[in-house]
């Protein structure tokens, strides 16, 4: 269809841009998106404008290889996201999700541009900003918001390799999650206590490394996941039971209690096969894919990568190739390698991946995970099986 570039609304230009991209007319589509972004800027919808500039820049680079033409669009996006951040911080109630996404986009944009000076500059600003926010939320008793803010501060201090900042924030999070674990145990909420122990372990390792303290806390997390799974079984909730046993398997794995991890893994595989068969026979195909990825992860936890990737392929087919499932199989692989190699570096990579996953940055998480897997002796072989399952040659 013909569209009047001068009279059309930003919404119309955006729709037309995406339609042309869908038709394979990438360059024309990008032009429409840029015009739409300018229109949104004029309407003072800064966040929408920023997202379209960023997307247009990424399309120019990734689809057309026009890196130089992409740079001004990405730079424009970065400065608009900084405006969004300024506006958000000035509000009486900060929307942490919007703030976090904007901060991530600023770092991504300057990384895209290869501008390490600005990456460091804004990472430092964001780390301090989130630390202050976390402290304010903690003082106000808004613990969930404090955790979100502190975990963001942790990520930016880690990005900067600021050991003092990382350890300071880790200390705050250990205290917060320790209290959550105590309260959960008191109320016999074993899944919640297991998750809290796992988080305490995660931040303890930042201070002391992959040592006995970390392993003991992960062992405790494993025991609490097992308790929670038994309660689910008693209630006839097999879906929850298998999910919790998988968490127990990996908690024991990272605790380097390989005997317990393997025993749970072997039993879990039998249970999952039965659960999947029952769901298929009863027509509950909506959950088959999720149980198949659990089965693949259980096999990874036993080091059976070739078998795991065959099941992974089935999981992809059942779920239409869901991107979160692609990320999960990579995370499971890194956990297995981290445990076997007793690698603190890999645990730190998992911190960054976890942060990206929480904010739905699945492609970035996958890329980071693959970089880590490649460094392992058998990494290329594992990735080859993975790519074959995904239909990548």
From TrEMBL:
<keyword id="KW-0931">ER-Golgi transport</keyword>
<dbReference type="InterPro" id="IPR019734">
    <property type="entry name" value="TPR_rpt"/>
</dbReference>
<keyword id="KW-0813">Transport</keyword>
<comment type="similarity">
    <text>Belongs to the SNAP family.</text>
</comment>
<keyword id="KW-0653">Protein transport</keyword>
<dbReference type="GO" id="GO:0006886">
    <property type="term" value="P:intracellular protein transport"/>
</dbReference>
<dbReference type="InterPro" id="IPR000744">
    <property type="entry name" value="NSF_attach"/>
</dbReference>
<keyword id="KW-0472">Membrane</keyword>
<dbReference type="GO" id="GO:0016020">
    <property type="term" value="C:membrane"/>
</dbReference>
<dbReference type="InterPro" id="IPR011990">
    <property type="entry name" value="TPR-like_helical_dom_sf"/>
</dbReference>
<protein>
    <recommendedName>
        <fullName>Gamma-soluble NSF attachment protein</fullName>
    </recommendedName>
</protein>
<dbReference type="GO" id="GO:0016192">
    <property type="term" value="P:vesicle-mediated transport"/>
</dbReference>
């Amino acid at each position: 269809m013909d569209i009047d570039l001068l009279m059309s609304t930003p919404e119309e230009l955006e729709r037309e841009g995406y339609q042309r991209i869908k038709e394979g007319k990438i360059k024309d589509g990008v032009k429409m998106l840029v015009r739409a972004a300018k229109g949104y800027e004029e309407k003072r919808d800064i966040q929408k404008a920023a997202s379209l500039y960023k997307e247009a820049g990424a399309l120019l680079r990734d689809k057309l290889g026009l890196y130089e033409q992409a740079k001004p669009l990405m730079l424009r996006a970065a400065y608009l996201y900084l405006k969004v951040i300024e506006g958000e911080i000035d509000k009486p109630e900060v929307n942490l999700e919007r703030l976090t996404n904007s901060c991530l986009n600023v770092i991504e944009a300057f990384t895209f541009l290869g501008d390490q000076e600005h990456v460091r500059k804004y990472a430092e600003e964001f780390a301090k900003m989130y630390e202050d926010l976390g402290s304010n939320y903690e003082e106000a008793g808004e613990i969930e918001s404090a955790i979100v803010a502190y975990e963001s501060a942790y990520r930016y201090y880690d990005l900067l390799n600021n050991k003092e900042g990382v350890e300071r924030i880790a200390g705050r999070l250990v205290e917060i999650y320790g209290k959550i674990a105590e309260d959960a145990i008191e109320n016999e909420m074993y899944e919640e206590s297991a998750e809290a122990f796992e988080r305490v372990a995660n931040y303890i390792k930042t201070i002391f490394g992959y040592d006995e303290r970390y392993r003991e806390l992960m062992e405790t997390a494993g025991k609490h996941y097992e308790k929670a799974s038994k309660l689910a079984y008693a209630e006839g909730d097999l879906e929850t039971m298998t999910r919790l046993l998988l968490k127990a398997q990996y908690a024991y794995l990272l605790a380097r209690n390989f005997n317990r991890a393997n025993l749970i893994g072997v039993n879990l595989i039998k249970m999952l096969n039965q659960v999947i068969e029952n769901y298929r026979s009863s027509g509950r195909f909506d959950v088959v894919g999720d149980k198949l990825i659990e089965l693949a992860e259980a096999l990874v936890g036993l080091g059976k990568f070739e078998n795991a990737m065959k099941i992974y392929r089935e999981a992809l087919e059942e779920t239409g190739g869901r991107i979160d499932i692609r990320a999960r199989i990579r995370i499971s692989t890194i956990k297995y390698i981290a445990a076997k190699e007793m690698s603190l570096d890999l645990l730190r990579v998992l911190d960054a991946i976890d942060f990206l996953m929480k904010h739905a940055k699945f492609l970035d998480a996958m890329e980071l995970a693959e970089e880590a897997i490649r460094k392992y002796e058998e990494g290329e072989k594992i990735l080859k099986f993975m790519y074959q399952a995904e239909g990548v040659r």
